[in-house]
Amino acid sequence: MIRVGILTVSDRSARGEREDTTQQAIRDTLDPELYRVEAYEVVPDEPAQIRRVLRLWADQQRLDLVLTNGGTGLAPRDHTPEATREVLEKEAPGLAELMRAEGRKKTPLAALSRGVVGVRGRTLIVNLPGSPRGAADALAALLPVIPHALETLTGRSYRGGKAHE
Known about the structure:
Elements: E1 2-9, H1 11-14, H2 22-29, E2 35-43, H3 47-60, E3 65-69, H4 80-87, E4 90-91, H5 93-104, E5 117-120, E6 123-128, H6 132-142, H7 146-154
Parallel strand pairs: 1-2, 1-3, 3-6
Antiparallel strand pairs: 4-5, 5-6
Helix pairs in contact: 2-6, 3-4, 5-6
């Protein structure tokens, strides 16, 4: 199984003013035979809080895949890509480009996403848009390559929904 963390970055959801529907859209996009969500948290769009969770999940919990959502646009409070870059050891720009390219096929607004993708330790970190549909579409674009990316990164194979050393 690919062990997943979902980090929602939203000031309003963190204050309890808005339900986080994006995390459910992400869960619905993941094949339960291959992916298991083991961590979920909502934080405000504060770089220190974003970095704290990313480090915890990559360094201590050693999740395979961390999917952030929210904070990737142009608004003044959107800091997710910058906070993510500060914890990454390597970027994977082709994966971020793939998300935007596929998204632009449905809406030109996908070009406004500044999300990044990269690696910390043996964890792949992906910044998804904050809207449920945008997050699901961006994630769907990556699903064909995530298992191979993680096989390369971790040395495990993910055939049949189970990790093999």
